[in-house]
């Protein structure tokens, strides 16, 4: 959950009178918080524009979570830059030490200092005890609707203006005609937002300076008459925004995608180009098909939007970045089969977002704090610092969001995640040779010496083909290295004499996969490393006050894998033994599931320890985890979750249909090497029923209606022929699928060819 630190303000943007007449039920708002809202009430917009589009029955106020967290982060960025600037001044001018002070952002002007936005992965929660940080805006008499506009406030150099459209809570998922109207209004809103950032509106430099570096510009270049967006102005901008970032929830994501194909009349309804909207982020949006089709207009809307994207994805829309995030298993309204689309550059679920790891229901995905943090960090990282606007480098935008939503291991900034090619080796470090193929290393707390665990590659040995390393509590980024070892007898530590150690090492840490909790995993092909000329693998453990544990598991090709042919439908409900006992001290075990290819299938996989699994003293080993691998999916890995420690049960279901019959899904277990496990699989009756309802439930009302109509026709026919009305159940039981299905198909074909008018056209 996300929290505000100041009062929220939803400030209405003035629209032309003809637009208000055409769309009296719609509105455009900008989010402000505390003192920051003062600029917005004055009509001063100096941030990067983002437009939030609510979904089915949604509210424009749902923008709050993203906007509030982004505002706090902009204050963090401002504070960091000013502290760095102050530090640089002290270094350049030693005489000023003790005299130069970094700005106190908790002073009289509303106290803009924000928390670190840190969470369980080293991040402080916004609701943490920071009483001095929860400041009130200087509102008159506490009235949040009328802040003191004479209060002088300067926004951070780099921040976002979050706009939101009010669609009157319309049920776009149930009534298709409103989607076209919403799309038309959103295209108008995008153009209106860009109009707010004219050359006289003071975007860009916050010091009031004009063009150039001489500071000759006037800091107040307008008298500011008007209302909400046509107000006072503050200086001129080097770069005027030419694009708007769209974030859509539920059906709002489809409306966002539809702006490119919408053709309206006049200047207000003209087409939106990819340069105007180069980035779309959708949350729990059904992209492939509507969840339920209650009218032809909804079906036509989807056909038009998806057909346009398919035709133009490699042409007109080639520069548009589409990011889709689904809620996963807990979102029973929009399943992952609908949120996952191959038209997207990144398609994932909240359960697979690093440091989020959990599924979210259809509404919670909007305010899920871990997802909001990842999204906001991505937005800040795709900004070009030279222009303070969205980067025009499409590849960078994709890489940034792939990092934050899929591959992040450590580091909250994309620019900080890069791994150096080589890592220097400390001369006085402690070296520990690992001679066994399976080894668990427990690093004591409060260790002040760097330790290198090293193991040889053993060329030609068939038992040394694959290496799995799992690190728990190991915070360093550059933790697995490869090197060419040599004898070093000049080290100061006597216990290092005559041991093979390295003077330099190549970094292999970019292969790391972050797993839920405090552990991460890396898998290596030892034969390939041998061909590349390396002799040893190193695990780098820096000095730390925390408990650290490292699992090393070396095995042959296929030594940690098993293929299983899943039984037929009826026999699948009987428990099937996959593995009686996993190999001793195995860190991972992979099971390929032949026969898992239908969306209605649901299996329970139970992992039971065969012994007590007594952990070592002070062990930090987590319980087993599981990863489902779908070779055909965009985000091919999906984490599975369970609870308990004596026997864990994982549910395996396909959320993405297979696109080829030549690939099979598999499940990888990360096991505690101190235990051996029995693996059992069987179909879940409840799970199968749940999948059938999820997949085919929306069709049930249609078939019920058809059966009722046919039953009624049977009764009327009986009255006409015999003068007696046949009972309801007798009429119902005389129906056959052969009579129902053709009737439905023929009716569907007739309706598709009819010119159907929506209510708005009729009115």
From TrEMBL:
Lineage, opening ranks: Eukaryota, Metazoa, Ecdysozoa, Arthropoda, Crustacea
Keyword Endoplasmic reticulum: yes
One GO CC term, this protein: endoplasmic reticulum membrane
Signal sequence annotation: none
Annotated organism of origin: Petrolisthes manimaculis
Membrane topology: Multi-pass membrane protein
GO terms for biological process, alphabetical: endoplasmic reticulum to Golgi vesicle-mediated transport; GPI anchor metabolic process; protein transport
Keywords from the UniProt entry: Endoplasmic reticulum, Hydrolase, Membrane, Protein transport, Transmembrane, Transmembrane helix, Transport
Pfam families in the cross-refs: PGAP1 (PF07819), PGAP1_3rd (PF24660)
GO MF annotation terms: phosphatidylinositol deacylase activity
Physiological role: Involved in inositol deacylation of GPI-anchored proteins which plays important roles in the quality control and ER-associated degradation of GPI-anchored proteins.
Chief location: endoplasmic reticulum
Record protein name field: GPI inositol-deacylase
Family named by the database record: Belongs to the GPI inositol-deacylase family.
Compartments, as annotated in UniProt: Endoplasmic reticulum membrane
InterPro entries reported in the protein's UniProt record: AB_hydrolase_fold, PGAP1-ab_dom-like, PGAP1/BST1
Compositional bias annotation for Basic and acidic residues: 74-147
Gly residues: compositionally biased ranges: 205-229
